[in-house]
Specification:
Oligomer: single chain
Helix content: 40-55%
Number of domains: 1
Number of helices: 9
Shape: globular
Distance between the termini: 21 Å
CATH architecture: 3-Layer(aba) Sandwich
Order of helices and strands: EHEHHEEEHHEHEHHEH
Structural class: alpha/beta
Bound molecules: 2'-deoxycytidine-5'-monophosphate
Radius of gyration: 16 Å
């Protein structure tokens, strides 16, 4: 039986989903499922194998067969693809752009559906991505859609990358975010949009702590935690 003890957090790039999903999962002792990391790992290996987004079938085959595992260690999601730890390699701006292109392919998305549902099958999961509440876990008992203005998201991403030792120009990050917003919202399937029953939060003028407080309050109300 599938569990509805799932919190989904969807929203555009840089809205703070990853941090909030990790914090919520930690607060409740639940599992954090960063599905963007799966798409990023597929994009990384696809690029290494010389694939482009027009190699749809090859990319889908890769997504179906690549052994992907996620671990949370010291408050960070670690990603293992095959026998390689790729956590840092998948976070570069180049991979962000390619992940957006590869994730727009319906064949690649389809190939990752089961893997994502299997990871969430036991419940007690905080799943974050673009289509968690609409496609992957439509039965989740609590769904959030977190957004913020592109300028604010670019600035936050800039700070996050700087903390990881990656230097990225602010204007270029905002430009990339706008392109990814466009790709994620206009692709053939699983467009970025809130589920009809999602709780929408605009975090433009809220701190991460304020958003987290709202989310924890809702989770306590819905799940009686
Ligand atoms: O959340 P992120 O930036 O790590 O995601 C990387 C890319 O993967 C992003 O362009 C959108 C895509 N993605 C997706 O299409 N569906 C998901 N559930 C998660 C991410």
């Amino acid at each position: 039986m599938k569990s509805d003890k799932i919190i989904t957090i969807d929203g555009p790039a840089g809205s703070g989903k990853s941090t909030l999903a990790l914090n919520l999962a930690q607060a409740f002792g639940w599992v954090c499922l960063d599905t963007g990391a799966l798409y990023r790992a597929v994009a990384l290996v696809a690029l290494e194998r010389g694939l482009t987004p027009s190699d749809r079938q090859e990319a889908a085959e890769l997504a179906r067969t690549l052994d992907l595992r996620l671990y949370v260690e010291e408050g960070k999601t670690l990603v293992v693809a095959g026998d390689r730890e790729v956590s840092s390699l998948i976070r570069t701006p180049e991979i962000s752009n390619f992940a957006s292109l590869f994730s727009a392919l319906p064949e690649v998305r389809e190939a990752l559906v089961d893997a994502q549902r299997n990871l969430g099958s036991r419940g007690e999961v905080v799943a974050e991505g673009r289509d968690m509440g609409t496609v992957i876990f439509p039965w989740a008992a609590l769904k959030f859609f977190l957004t913020a203005e592109a300028k604010v998201r670019a600035y936050r991403r800039h700070l996050q990358l700087a903390r990881e030792g990656i230097v990225a120009e602010l204007e270029k990050l905002e430009e990339d975010i706008l392109i990814r917003d466009h790709n994620d919202s206009s692709r053939e399937t699983a467009q970025l949009k809130p589920a009809p029953d999602a709780f929408i939060i605009d975090g433009t003028n809220l701190s991460a702590f304020e958003v987290e407080t709202i989310m924890i309050g809702e989770a306590k109300r819905v799940f009686g935690l």
